[in-house]
Amino acid sequence: MRDLKIYPNCPFVTRVVEVGGLTKSQLIQQLQQYSILINEYAERLLADDKFTTSDTKYSIQTVELTVGDLGFPDGATTDQIFNRAREIGLELCPIELGPYLRMEYLDQPEGYSGDPLQRHQAPSGSITIASEILTEDDDFPKGFYLRCINGELWLRGYRADHLHVWNPDDHFIFCKLFNGRYP
Fold first, then answer.
1. pLDDT (tens digit per residue) in 159-180
2. Which of 4, 21, 61, 166 is deepest in the core (most CB within 10 A)?
3. How far is CA 147 from the centre of its chain?
4. How far apart are CA 183 and CA 179, in angstroms?
């Protein structure tokens, strides 16, 4: 059995992202100014009343790691991933982080490998933002993920039910809290 390196004893990426200070329409306008493409699920998330923005700017430290880095060499469900992250001191991100992180992370490596998309799996090169799920409705998007396809940056929404098993190589973004709150 190979040695499993689990967070924080594994490679991971941290970023500090400034969030807030824009209305929803200003945020959408800025995404357009950055030439960021949005899929239908992301549009639904942004348009929903449950997607709110903060009037005040604040900074969030994010941690990017894989499902395997959380101790799941065979993959895990969303609930298992989110619960393990909390156990090791990471938190779910506010839903509004998605658009801000997309505008901040402009040098994301190419995710398209030329392979046809595999249905019901996170696409190659994508990074899913772990955030509170706005509704249990399986037809409503659960959150955002970031992707670069053919040189174009995407903010995409995704759907996954509670039975979906994420692969050990799937990347997630969590937030690191300071004294029980965002810094």
1. 998 899 999 999 999 999 655 5
2. 166
3. 10
4. 8
Q: Do residues 130 and 93 make contact, with C-beta atoms less than 8 angstroms apart?
A: yes
Interval 13-57: pLDDT, tens: 999 999 999 999 999 999 999 999 999 999 999 999 999 999 999
Cβ atoms within 10 A of the Cβ of 61, count?
Answer: 15
Query: What is the model's pLDDT at position 1?
Result: 39
- The burial of 12, by beta-carbon neighbours within 10 Å (0-12 exposed, 13-18 middle, 19 or more buried), is given as middle
Could you tell me what percentage of the chain is helix, strand and coil, using 3-state DSSP and rounding each to the nearest 5? 20, 30, 50
Domain ranges (residues) in the chain: 13-176
Query: What single string gives the DSSP state of each residue in 54-71?
Result: -SS-EEEEEEEEETGGGT
Tens digit of each residue's pLDDT (9 = 90 or more) over 105-144: 999 998 865 555 556 688 888 999 999 999 989 899 999 9
